[in-house]
Amino acid sequence: MVGIFLPSSALAQENNQANTSYTQYEQYIREGILGEDVSYDEWKNLVESSQKLEEILSNSTDFYEVYSSDATMARASFTPKKGDVIITNGTSSAGILGHAGIATSSSQILHIAGKGENPKTISFTKWHSDYTNKDRSSWTKVYRHKNSSVADHAANWAIEKYKDSNAQYKITPNLASTDVTYCSKIVWQAYYYGPVPAEANGPTWGYRLPYDLPDTIHNLSYQHTY
User: Model pTM?
Assistant: First the structure.
């Protein structure tokens, strides 16, 4: 059985914005964004759940908006650390909202951007330009593991497996593979395979959404919102 690790209430949530038609699903399969082992019902649940989870995360008590000159001051006052989990609402893929990456230093993030892309590291400045500053409703949240050694192991695993790799972007339920991947899978894998013992929920079959990561990775705490 495929495991989709999402709140049950989210699975029943109606998505009024995204196109969750079977025709749209078939298009994503043809484009190679979704693997053929992703069923229509699974994909539809993921899309609907991501919308609900975005609403929850955006309205959480740790959220606040920072824009324009205030954003510059906020960034200057907060320093990311290696292993930080970075989540933004500034983009989506295959109708699934959100995007995630893992900090490999205080100034770099490893991520995979989407269709036709390979994993790469980009600067926080580039991340903010592409996602946080997309519009006034866009945000980036930073979550940090309580143990810096665990965070280092996770980041090092991501660097070793994915930096400059030829992995292709594709959403599939195989969470163990590294030849095809997607943004939140990379981050989850880093904490599942990097530290010993694993610092993320198993098993290795199912899906991980960007907005799921604070719950599916152990001992993360919210740090900052850009």
Answer: 0.87
